[in-house]
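Notes from hallway chat w/ T.B., transcribed later so I don't forget. T.B. wanted the structure written out for a chain they're using in a teaching module, and asked if we could keep both sequence and structure tokens in one place. Agreed to drop them here.
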Amino acid sequence: MKEFMVFVPRSVDEALEFLDTEKGSVILAGGSDLVVKLKERKLTPKYVVDISHIDELRFIKEDGDYIVLGPLMTHEELRLSPFIMEFAPILHEALSQLGSPQIRNIGTIGGNIVTASPVADSVPPLFVLDATLKLQKKSGKRVVHISEFGIGPQKTIIERNELLTEIKFKKMGAHEVGFFRKLGQRKALSIAKVSVAMWAMVKNDTIEDISIALGAVAPKVVYAKNGMSTLKGKPITPENIKEAANVIAERDCSPITDIRSTVDYRRAMTSSLFIDGCERVFGVSVEV
């Protein structure tokens, strides 16, 4: 492994000052992804900035109708949080399926986002929860929607001297339902072949509003916009759900064939996962 220097800031300001002056730096949070890349020499940085000791980036709190997370919260800390269980059950469902207990105890929500993998389990739920991200650098801050953050596999809009310092989303409330479904190579500890997250506002057996996000079927996590349009404003019926599932598979997916799966299988499983989730949260049975 190529030698590099490690800098361990104790505050956000200290980290931002270093990032502003020193080029060739990478950020280490939990390290579940970065350490592997360093060992395999996929990255050869000059500096590793270990932010894991910045306590001000490790929090979960309520802000009125919103939940606000610090990026250093681990997957397991969030999975066990009563706030997440009650107000973001879609995210809780995803975190419960994410990796092994060891990974959940080391990996962070911020790292899962910044890695910008199309198979990241926490990102589709954050899409449908309409999450925003606060990016901060020495000269100022900006807030972006999570759907604008990733621009391709392991590519984001974050600048070299910026840190992700906050994740924020609205609490789920009355009349809101949702799910996260994932298909992997095996039953546990697997990387997603396909994942689907959905949030819906339901009143009088009608879907007043809906958001659907797909993982592992495009170069980045994407909204299933055609499927959303198909169901928005429609009554909850098996026929409408089946139609939306077909639309999602045919028009919202752009999967590839790789070592984990094929294009046709990914399309079919996207439809199947969506139907399975809808059957559970809407209490209907869909014939396929």
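Follow-up for T.B.: DSSP finds twelve helices and 14 strands in the chain. Might be a good example for the class.
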